[in-house]
Amino acid sequence: MCEAGWTLSLVLIPLIGSATSSPFFSPAPPFLSQISTPSPLPINLPALSLSFPSPTFTGSSTESMTRVECNLKISPSILVVRFGDPAKANCSKSSTGFPMLGWVNTQGASDTTMESFLVWSVDKMTEWAVNPICFATSDQGGDCSSNLPLIVYKPPKKVSIQFLNHTGPMFERHQYSLQCTVQDVAPVGNVIVTFYRGQTPLGQLRSNWTTEKTPVNESFTLIITPFKEDNGSQYWCEAKLELGPAGPQHPPVETSQNLTVMVLWNPEPIHPTKLHMKEEKHLDSELKTNQQPLGSGTTNSYRGCFLWFALLAHLIN
């Protein structure tokens, strides 16, 4: 029985020691490398299904809704405004399935309404690249939009003309470069330059810089070949800012100064036969001038005979 009691005590001691803290046996703290990340408790949650409306329609039914029901109308369809002037445009919708209507531009500013129309306006156009967009949002989460083409223009500040790498008189049948420079104009892709000699148009040129919207300077060059008939002529050029039917009724036009030219040419050589005929004509004229009637005196008679003999000797030679 004692042996069994000791055995029981021996068994209970480690059990009690492992259940209560002992001042004699304190376990060493584990090393950091031995610390494992606690595993999350296995919690069974119901699966969530989330869906967000996309502004881009992909189904055939939504495409039909966008094209048929979302009828956005912008007036004017193209807006042309001079830099610094006010501008405005109206956007309206005829569909009832798109309750919200709005404007947004490239600068991030936006305006919305629940009405059937909305006006976009600026008091003073101070931006060169503006892209206003009218949009409408449907009840089903889709939307549609329409861009307003907008042209901001500035008439040419100055137009000048000169000969490139040449000064002084020109020679007939030689080629020369006539240069027309247009300063501070926008958009330069809408500029048409016409060269003139007097009131005769010589040619038209346009810029290849069609994407630039801010004011720039550009030169246009035309090759000319003057003739002696062009001596004293005046050359000049004209820059017209052609902005289309939506632009001003009278397109902005700026002209250059007049450039008066002097043309030098070689005199036409005279053929020997023509020279011989001219000499005969001159001699015959002199003979008639000095011819006197018969009996007017001995001196005049001798002079007449001398001239006749001179003419005869000239014809023989």
Give the SSE map:
Elements: H1 2-19, H2 60-68, E1 72-75, E2 79-82, E3 87-93, E4 100-104, E5 110-113, E6 117-122, E7 133-137, E8 143-147, E9 150-153, E10 158-163, E11 170-171, E12 176-185, E13 191-197, E14 200-206, E15 216-224, E16 234-241, E17 253-255, E18 259-260, E19 263-264, H3 272-290, H4 298-316
Parallel strand pairs: 2-9, 11-19
Antiparallel strand pairs: 1-3, 3-6, 4-5, 4-7, 7-8, 10-12, 12-15, 13-14, 13-16, 16-17, 16-18
Separation of the first and last Cα atoms: 182 Å
Shape: rod-shaped
Question: What would the average pLDDT be, to the nearest integer?
Answer: 74
- Largest beta sheet, briefly? 5 strands, antiparallel
Number of helices: 4
| Uncertain segments | 1-68, 294-299
Radius of gyration: 50 Å
The number of E-state strands comes to 19
Molecular structure report:
The chain has 317 residues and is an alpha+beta fold. It has 4 helices and 19 strands. The chain is rod-shaped.
Short key terms for the protein model shown above:
disordered N terminus; Ig-like_dom; 32% strand; Ig-like_dom_sf; 4-stranded antiparallel β-sheet; rod-shaped; 317 residues; ICAM_VCAM; Ig-like domain-containing protein
In short:
This protein is an alpha+beta fold.
